[in-house]
Amino acid sequence: MTRLSATPRSTLTRKKHRAETDREALYAVLDEGLVCHLGLVLNGSPVVLPTGYGRDGDTLYLHGSTGAASLRSAAGGIDVCVTVTLVDGIVYARSLNNHSMNYRSAVIHGRARQVDAPEAKMHGLRVLSEHLSPGSWEHARAVNAKEFASVSVIALDLTEASVKTRAGAPADEPEDIATGTAWAGVLPVHTGFGSPIPAGYVPAGVPVPAHVAERGTGPSGTGPATGSR
Fold it and tell me: Based on the number of CB atoms within 10 Å of its own CB, is 102 exposed (0-12), middle (13-18) or buried (19 or more)?
């Protein structure tokens, strides 16, 4: 396994035992999540914005309107931070102080770069599309020239990153275990997909395509959601 970088910004200062050290743990969090938060300083103020993303190897792609000040600023050589968090459970302890969450989180630091070369930009858009809606790149209408010109794509290397996780039972104090009476345990949190709902303009009888149905549950897609946890 390739180890994650160990820099002052990517080294945990609290609960160090929860740090993951191999890069595959980073990939796993990014590949399962759907939304990241982009943090940067914009016009002298901190801003944290939710957005979609996609990963190709050690590159993270983000996109938005060419008019978005946040993307223009992010690609301008400033430090940015991108985070992705997955919640796996609510942890109930016998003391309120020891209630917690089971989670997996990734934090990436670095300086993003604008992706301008047409072929590289189109590749970034494909990575983003296939992360959120696998199979759509080949199924839906391709990006036209006007749409391509109106969208901005930035790339962030995954060189400087950290992953922190918590799993398992509550960490109760010995005296609470011995004398407490409150219930303690974990309430799992699962994220999945429901049954596909066609748009109103889709004629009756048009089947749900396989790349959509296989992610859903219910009549149109009976298998488990691929993004469930």
Answer: buried
- pTM strictly above 0.70: yes
- The Cα 71–Cα 57 span in angstroms is 22
CA 59 → CA 70, 73, 185, distances in Å? 19, 19, 38
Q: Determine the average pLDDT of the residues in 22-48.
A: 96
Residues 38 and 108: their CA atoms lie apart, in Å, by 10
Domains of the chain: 16-87+101-169 (2.30.110.10), 192-224 (no CATH)
SS3 92: strand
Q: Output the six-digit token pair for 138.
A: 């080949």
pLDDT at 17: 86
- Reference 101, options 36, 168, 12; nearest CA is 168
d(C-alpha 118, C-alpha 197), whole Å: 34
Residue pair 124/131 in contact (Cβ under 8 Å)? The answer is: no
Looking at residue 222, what is its pLDDT?
Answer: 35
Q: Rounded distance, CA 30 to CA 37, Å?
A: 12
Q: SS3 helix, strand, coil % of the chain, rounded to 5? A: 25, 30, 45
Closest CA to 182 of 96, 100, 90: 96
